Amino acid sequence: MHSLVTDMNGTNGEFTITGRAHLVTDSATRELAVKGCPYTPKERYVCFEFKLEMCMTNTYADGVPKTRHWKEKSGAKIAPL
């Protein structure tokens, strides 16, 4: 997934993530997702969990990009961007 870039200069920067989506089939995980949702999803809605593998942010100062990366490390619980 990649964020919207608002103009050709990248004024607001950009953000991208990669990973794998998995179909949620257990009711406990679905219930947790529903609780965090700003609306009430219908029962027929399909729910996926997205497991992040890589994040990247790019900002620009005076036309020069500043890039930061985060990659998932096996067994890591929390990893800073």
Please report the distance between the alpha carbons of the first and last residues: 17 Å
Low-pLDDT regions: 76-81
Rg result: 17 Å
* Separate helix tally: 1
Helicity level, as a percent range? 10-25%
The main β sheet shows up as:
3 strands, antiparallel
> What kind of oligomer do you see?
single chain
Can you tell me about this structure?
This protein has 81 residues and is mostly beta strands. The protein has one domain. It is 11% helix and 40% strand. The protein contains 1 helix and 3 strands; from the N terminus they run E-H-E-E. It has one helix at residues 27-35, and strands at residues 14-23, 48-61, 64-71. The chain has a 3-stranded antiparallel sheet, with no helix packed on it. Strand 2 and strand 3 (64-71) form a beta hairpin. The radius of gyration is 17 Å and the shape is elongated. The two termini are 17 Å apart. Residues 76-81 have low confidence and may be disordered.
